[in-house]
Design brief:
The chain has 2 helices and 13 strands. It is mainly beta.
């Protein structure tokens, strides 16, 4: 049962890649916000740490996902294909719940977050170490508004602001934190 979280901000799963996403010189991307429900009915989210050998986002914390490839008919296809490639996710055990509004990445490309749930045991995941160095299962309460703060940082000589979720073993910030803020997950009253 997936009842401890309210998903009020979800939009329908986009049926196709809309042409508006191709206005940037960079191909659009999709990521999956993947909720795991364990045997104790506790909800956690999957975050990955990118390997240091990939061409972009080396060592960064984020959601599984990547750029659109030939054969990806919809954003969910891209997000789930990437999750399968990166962590060996069994796609037959995934239920897509919807999507969050697209956001622009720093390169101007659009990123569509897909929200899904699985009961896959974490032990069944098989990391592709060429792409993913580690995974983190973060309890739901650490990515709620009550655990979010803002901070400033300098990147490439420009001051920027970001949200930050301190999740103990990792900190989630940047685009991943923007996605969490936009999704605005809320714990349900039990």
């Amino acid at each position: 049962m997936f009842s401890e979280i309210k998903l009020d901000q979800l939009k329908p799963d986009p049926p196709t890649w809309d042409s508006v996403y191709f206005m940037s010189a960079c191909k659009p991307s999709a990521v999956v916000i993947l909720f795991f429900i364990n045997e104790n009915k506790q909800t956690t989210l999957l975050f990955i740490k990118r390997s240091t050998t990939v061409s972009s986002h080396r060592g960064q914390i984020g959601f599984p996902g990547g750029r659109l490839e030939v054969g990806d008919l919809r954003p969910r296809d891209t997000a789930l294909r990437e999750a399968h490639e990166e962590v060996g996710l069994d796609l037959s055990r995934v239920r897509v719940l919807g999507a969050v509004d697209p956001l622009p990445a720093l390169d101007g490309s659009m990123v569509i977050p897909i929200v899904a749930v699985t009961n896959t045991p974490v032990e069944d995941l098989r990391l592709n170490y060429a792409e993913v160095a580690e995974i983190y299962m973060i309890p739901l309460d650490l990515v709620l508004e009550s655990n979010r703060r803002e901070f400033g940082f300098n990147m490439f000589g420009c001051w920027r602001k970001s949200y930050l979720y301190d999740c103990g073993q990792i900190s989630v910030w940047g685009l991943s934190a923007e996605i969490l803020k936009l999704a605005n997950f809320q714990a349900s009253a039990r």
